[in-house]
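so im writing up the methods section and need the Fe2OG dioxygenase domain-containing protein record in one place, dumping it here so i stop losing it
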Amino acid sequence: MSKQTTNTSEHHQHRIFLSDSLSWYTHTRLGGVLRDSAEAAAASSALASTGSTSSDFVTLTREVEWLQRDVVIFGKKVPQPRLIQYMADDVRLAYRYSGCDLVPVKFHPIVLQAKEQAETLAGVPRGYFNSCLLNRYRDGKDSNGWHADDEPLYGRDPIIASVSYGAARDFDIKRKADGPPEKARLRLCDGDVLIMGGAMQRNYLHCIPKRANSKVDGERINLTFRRILKPM
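--- predicted struct ---
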């Protein structure tokens, strides 16, 4: 991996390029502060580091209608190991994955505010992200398996922005089977913003692995912002 500094909007973003030289991510805080490994380690033991993210987390747990949906894995229908909700600009921006059909609800005000901050950090125009998949990990048993956000409705090489609230969780990255072995692990903490771009979804997979509850300090909420180009 290599690190490259680029100037996007008014923020200096440190893009981490993976070995294919086409895939990159940035790891920052709400407000645009660069996140490094030492900061992430410190934040993992002090989760509610800012009042805004702490209060926003509580509000989201209470006011979002969280759902547990069934998904189809290897032809078998199983309960998804986390709670979800789906929000978008337009009810026509439906989303389907793993046999699960999602019809969007309107953006919650906190989600809309986070979307605008994520757009600034990603260096894209206001209103660029038009949909958001929300994930709620209740404990270490809740997880998200290896996958890529490479559905055709996002177009080729989408920009994906992820905002984290609550407990810190590992975020693993690995090269798809047709490439050389390569793995990376990030620690996503309360208030962290991860932006993935370039060929990241085309060439790499990512996941939130299961963890012993003793190693996870409570619940985590993740807002994953995307731009749908080709509605279903």
